[in-house]
Amino acid sequence: MTQPLFIGGLGPPELLLIAGVLILLFGASKLPKLARSMGTATGEFKKGREEVEDELEEMREGDDEAVETDPEREPVETDPDREPERSGT
After folding, report:
1. Considering the domain boundaries, does residue 23 fall inside one?
2. C-beta of residue 14 within 8 angstroms of C-beta of residue 6
3. CA distances from 49 to 58, 64, 87 (A)
4. DSSP state of 41
C-alpha cells in the first residue's frame, strides 16, 4: 500500500528540496521578485475574498430584515416541477 507524498506535512528536508528546485528553475536573482509578486497576489486575493464575504453578509442581513418586517407574509412555493396556476378560463 502506498502512502500519499506529504501526509505528515512538509519537514525541513522537503523544504530544502523545494528551495533547491526553485533556485534551479528561476535563478537566485529572480526569487525575491517572484516572492514579492506572489505576496502581492495573495494580498489581492484575500482582499477580494473579504469584499465578497462582506457583500454576502449584507445580503443575508437584508433578507433577515425583510422577513422580520413582514411576519404575516405567506411563504412562496418554489417547486420547479409544479405547473403554474392559472386564474380564469
Report:
1. no
2. yes
3. 14, 23, 46
4. H
Retrieve residue 78's grid coordinates: 418554489
Cβ-in-10-Å burial (0-12, 13-18, 19+) of 70 comes to: exposed
- Answer whether residue 7 is part of any domain: no
Judge residue 5's burial from the number of C-beta atoms within 10 Å of its C-beta, 0-12 exposed, 13-18 middle, 19 or more buried: exposed
Q: What is the pLDDT of residues 35-61, one digit of tens each?
A: 899 999 999 999 999 999 999 999 988
Q: Is residue 9 part of a domain?
A: no
| Dihedral pair phi/psi, residue 88, rounded to 5° | 80, 170
pLDDT band (50, 70, 90) for residue 86: low
Please report whether residue 5 resides in a domain. Answer: no
**For residue 48, how far is the Cα from the chain centroid?**
10
Range of the domain at 52: 29-68
Instruction: Pick 12 or 70 by higher pLDDT.
Output: 12
